[in-house]
Amino acid sequence: MRNLPHLPDAIGFRPIVGRVMTAAMLLLSMTLGGSIARANTLEKAVENMAENISDYLDQKGQRQIALQPFVGPSSSTAGRAIQSSLKKALEKRDATVQRLGTDWTVRGSYSMETVSGGAIVLIKAELVDSRGKEISGFREKVKVEKVVDVEDISRLLGSTVDLTEEQTALASAQKDNKDAGSSDSSATEKLEAAKKISEREKDVAETLVSSLTKPEFAFRNSGKTAVAASDESLFRVEMLVRDAGTNSFRPMGVENVGGFPFAPLKANDVYKLKIYNDSDHAIGVKVSIDGINSFALADRPEIRELGTWFIPPSSAGVIPGWYINNTLAKEFLVTASGEDLGLPNALDIGTVTVQFFNAWREGEPKPEIELAAREKGQLRTGVGRDVSRQGGFQQCFFGKVLLSSVSLRYSNPDDLPE
User: Fold this and answer.
1) Domain count, the chain
2) Contact predicate 194/117, CB 8 Å
3) Is the per-residue pLDDT at 100 higher than 70?
4) Within this chain, do residues 265 and 396 fall inside the same structural domain, yes or no?
5) Beta bridge partners of 361
6) pLDDT of 347 above 70
7) SS3 319
8) Are residues 308 and 349 in the same domain?
9) Burial state string for 160-190 with b = 16 or more CB within 10 A and e = fewer than 16
């Protein structure tokens, strides 16, 4: 239980910063020129990759390299995340990454598929010379064996997806398995109970992957400004953009680009996010902008390490910008500037992802779905002017089961399918 700040219109919160992808278990093996490295997160894997590339460049007397995007599902932000992280990691090792005038280039691809009990992300890369001839190769296989905590995976993929049904079925299978293990159930019954968990976990993974291969979302008002993962979802998101030269904000119309919601923001636009909770229970909401939690600039470390806004039942609240403290925020400002914005490394550039979880106050029962949960140069958003705000503190709890996710793309619409 925590004392958490909240907005006057009944939002509280909790942040998380700096991770790219985690799951109950993640196994990754990576090869470069015959060497093998292991990591338990994509972030760590990219660090290992950069180290191997840097070592190889040293051996060959090269320190300049070009880096092309990692090609994958055109709807996913993972390719930009991999490229951005790799560039930063290489530059930390004194490699020069530039667009033109290099003899060697790294180009790569990635793919996703579901397997029993989870999903696999396969990352391939090759180092080629100026003639396009391959010099050395990479092959990484990321196996998510237990897709239970799908929070970071959803954010990495930039998913707009409703997982309530699948997560409820998974929680039920976990409860049945626990009951079978503590009863006089036969070995066959226990095996069947464990098998159901694997099947339900695969359902979650398939729904996530399907949100990219067969994307869809729902407009929840006639003006096409409020977006939800589906017609049935009880959670929706609206982007409010400031009229130029004024302090007035209006809802921004959202476009359907190949099944994905796209907000046509431009450089120097200032925006806010309005989050609606139409359910009969409280929710926790994590907001990630370009892969960065909206409380990354918080004065207090404990606030930076939490990460979820609290929204009571049948209510809504506006997130005005990067949270600093209980009386101050910094505007969400769209910028093409390459300057240091004072923010952590932006991974998913051009994507705003809003993720929904259960929440409950002290004395209220824990939601049943949480009882079995296991432990787990293009446009970007920069820092604008100070925004005064008022708020207080309240006590509440947040769940770990991702119910729904809405991702709004706001730059590079050419990345999306026609």
Assistant:
1) 2
2) no
3) yes
4) yes
5) 396
6) no
7) strand
8) yes
9) bbbbbebbebbbbbbebbeebeeeebeeeee
Under DSSP, the state recorded for 413 is: G
Domain that holds residue 99: 26-144
Q: What is the DSSP string of 63-115?
A: -EEEEEEEE--TT-SHHHHHHHHHHHHHHHTT-EE-SSS-S-EEEEEEEEEEE
Residue 245 lies in a domain: yes
Q: How many CB atoms lie within 10 A of CB 30?
A: 21
What's the farthest any 2 CA atoms get from each other in the chain?
A: 71
Other Cβ atoms within 10 Å of 101 Cβ, number: 9
C-alpha to C-alpha distance for 168 and 184, rounded to whole angstroms:
25
Quote the CA–CA distance of 210 and 229 in Å, as a whole number: 13
Asked whether residue 12 falls in the same domain as residue 88, the answer is: no
113 & 17 share domain: no
Q: How far apart are CA 102 and CA 68, in angstroms?
A: 12
Instruction: Please give the Cα distance from 40 to 44 (Å, whole number).
Output: 7
Q: How far from the centroid of its chain's Cα atoms is residue 183's Cα? A: 39
Tell me 9's DSSP state. Answer: T
Identify residue 372 by its one-letter amino acid code: A
Q: What is the mean pLDDT of the chain?
A: 77
Structure-token pair, residue 57: 């460049």
Residue 10 included in any domain: yes
Q: What is the pTM of this model?
A: 0.73
Nearby residues of 117 by Cβ (< 8 Å), 6 or more positions away: 145, 146, 147, 198, 201, 202
- Is 80 within 8 Å of 100 (Cβ atoms)? no
Q: Which of 27-31, 56-60, 223-227, 313-317 has the lowest mean pLDDT?
A: 27-31
295, 293, 237, 282: which is closest to 394 by C-alpha? 282
The CA distance from 247 to 240, in Å, is 12
CATH of the domain at 112: 3.40.50.10610
What is the separation of C-alpha 105 from the centre of its chain, rounded to a whole number of angstroms?
28
